[in-house]
Write a structure and sequence with these properties.
With about 250 residues, the protein is α+β, with helices and mostly antiparallel strands. It contains 5 helices and 14 strands. It folds into 2 domains: about 110 residues, no CATH class; about 120 residues, no CATH class. Helix 1 packs across helix 4 and helix 2 crosses helix 4.
Length: about 250
């Protein structure tokens, strides 16, 4: 069951034998708990490519243009691609996914780590091929970065010979929870347990067995949540490519 920010704060407060609050900023202590929840949320998000964080960006390819800045991409979820975004790896094929979803041109492009050198050479010697894009690479953008955005350059080859629509799969983490009603996307149990552990560290006096047991519970709940999410991903492997076509 999804948890709101306020529910998460109270989940931790109860474990600390503190009174529940009606808003996350009710006291300096509840605000601190809220900060620990966001710390824990980020760690849990980074621990696995959660199915609830799987997103895709849309690339409107223009004829003759072979590089595109990711900070302008639109996503399926309409959540911006933040500086914490990372490529979603299809565990079935063990590759990142960029898919041509244009009708009659559906195709999975191949990730090529040395594509920048290939394209630079081809363009320099005036021997570049204009055709349907088949390869791609993600580079750090050389443009002026947009604060907090996923500042990357998507490079394509062949140089597009027409207009196409591409979709790229990413893990797109949430921004920090702020409002009481903000809803957590990743599993809540490891987030609550991690935030509780941070609070115990902060208190200092509750060390020893309590800390050890809580650390074990953090690890167990995280492993269990990842295992459950892996099983969902494995059962719906083709959900990773929801655009049709054979890849």
């Amino acid at each position: 069951m999804a948890r709101t920010y306020l529910q998460l704060v109270n989940d931790v407060l109860i474990r600390l034998r503190e009174s529940a609050v009606v808003t996350n900023g009710a006291s300096s202590y509840s605000s601190m708990v809220g900060a620990f929840i966001n710390d824990a949320k980020r760690e849990v998000e980074d621990a696995w490519q959660w199915s609830h964080l799987m997103d895709w960006f849309i690339v409107p390819v223009v004829q003759g243009q072979y590089s595109y800045e990711t900070n302008s991409f639109i996503t399926r979820s309409l959540r911006p691609l933040s500086d914490r975004t990372r490529l979603w790896i299809d565990t079935y094929r063990n590759v990142p996914l960029l898919i041509n979803t244009t009708k009659n041109f559906e195709n999975l492009l191949t990730y090529e780590p040395s594509l920048e050198n290939i394209v630079t050479h081809q363009v320099t010697v005036n021997n570049a091929v204009n055709d349907i894009p088949q390869w791609w690479q993600l580079l750090q953008s050389a443009s002026t970065p947009t604060a907090g955005a996923w500042n990357k350059t998507l490079l394509l080859y062949n140089i597009p010979n027409n207009s196409y629509t591409l979709n790229g799969m990413v893990v797109n983490p949430q921004t920090d929870l702020v409002n009481d009603t903000d809803t957590l996307l990743v599993p809540y149990a490891p987030v609550v347990q991690k935030a509780y552990l941070y609070c115990l560290y902060e208190r200092g006096e509750e060390l020893g067995e309590t800390i050890t047991l809580t650390q074990q519970k953090v690890e167990t709940t995280l492993v269990d949540a990842i295992s459950q999410d892996q099983s969902i991903s494995a059962q719906g492997q083709q959900v990773a490519i929801p655009f049709g076509g054979q890849y």
